Amino acid sequence: MMTPQGLRYTKTHEWAKQEGADVLVGITAHAQEELRDVVYVELPPVGKAVKQGEPVAVVESVKAAFDIYAPLSGTVARVNETLSKSPQLVNQDCYGTGWFFAITPSQPSELSALMSPDDYTKLIQADAH
Amino acid sequence: MNKTAFHAEHLRLGAKMTDFHGWDMPLYYTSILDEHTSVRTAAGIFDISHMGQAWVSGPGSLQTLNELIVSDLAQVGEGRACYTLLTNPRGGIVDDLIIYRVGAQEFLVIVNCANRRKDVAWIVEHQRPGTRVGDISLGRSILAIQGPQVAPLLEQVLETPVSGLGRFSAMHLSGWGSRAWLARTGYTGSDGFEVFLEDAPALRVWKRCLELGAPLGLKAIGLGARDTLRLEAGLRLYGTDMDDATTPYEADLGWTVAINKPSFIGKDVLVNQKTAGVTKRLVGIELPEGPVPRTGCALMAGGRQVGSVTSGTFSLMLHKPIGLGYVETRAASPGTAVQVMIRSKAYPATVVKLPFWRAQQRAPEAIASKRG
After folding, report:
1. A42 touches chain B (CB under 8 A)
2. Can you give the residue range of the structural domain that contains A71?
3. Considering its fold, how many domains does chain B have in total?
4. Can you tell me the ipTM of this complex?
5. What is the CATH number of the domain that holds A39?
């Protein structure tokens, strides 16, 4: 499984990507693979203040519901409305059209402190053993 | 962990395995939704050999079983099957099961895997003179072949006509080993068959189905889709949607109860309950959209809790979240507006008639054959 370069990662399997002043957040290929059949996504309200490591969204597969954690602190700037009608985008294109929400960070340095693609790849390889 | 004769096949097909009551079983091979779709539109094959098989025979067998179940087995002819319930003296459900009448005095009894020992012990404990009770599960397998396109496929695989076999009918398969039976039963709501065989012939059926069924789109199906299929068809899961503290009337399975039968365990309680009515009942609920109701979610009406969810999933055929749950009787009529509490938020839902989904194409009805 490819871990895209240019993104940062969390050990709870979110990715974070700088886009202008905001940071886009989604779940990794490994996470969507584990979930398989995503049937529902619950997104936070725009404007909500979030803290790094707190649950801010929910993704549901056929079998169960899972929390999505904020990779960094800040304010929810935008959410991916298309996921409410097409949650399967999380399975089909997790690093692209399947993004969850954007955060305007309050402490931008938190982003570079997240895991590098190499470290994240090692983490999921260790999980597999 | 227990393994069925198909364990190596599941691994070969890349299944994600799960522990199901001590059995290492396939949860899915590709995805639950893919597999669900295959069964609804084409064909699927399930290894359900973890389920228990008991053989009850002899001159006392009918009387023995009839005393333990709510249905009247005397009304079930040879070559016919019935879905029924074992009840305890409090009228609670010990298990749900299918009994196949394979001879005048011979019955194949299929029980839930987690209840196998409990059920067999229960039958043995209550056996009448002239009854033999055997747990024949060891060395035997059960395959379910389900979906609108499986009848012609099975004719090819078994090299015998099966299309005319009616719903809840069973036929002996000669040349397929001992106690080889095929029945038009299943746990999906789609048309389909179940086949009861020794391990070696069962493996032959499995391989031939995968081979000859591939052009039809037949897939191996895991327990994940087995659960979503049964739920969409409104079929209860023992241990989740009912247990030994729930009665047949509460589980809305009153149609299985032959209340005028001279006697059976729990009859007194059930007679009273039939007259007085139940205080809670199992219902189906449907959400127009939104999250999936899960086991334990509270059901509200008029600002207070009236029940809770026992099973829930996302229905692929209806494209909406569905669930089963128990509610106070006054909130149990179809059309009643309720709310489901999911992560501390109330979502509107409606009580609906079961099943949630019904197949357009159904197996032929068997010609009623009654025995005294």
Report:
1. yes
2. 9-128
3. 3
4. 0.89
5. 2.40.50.100
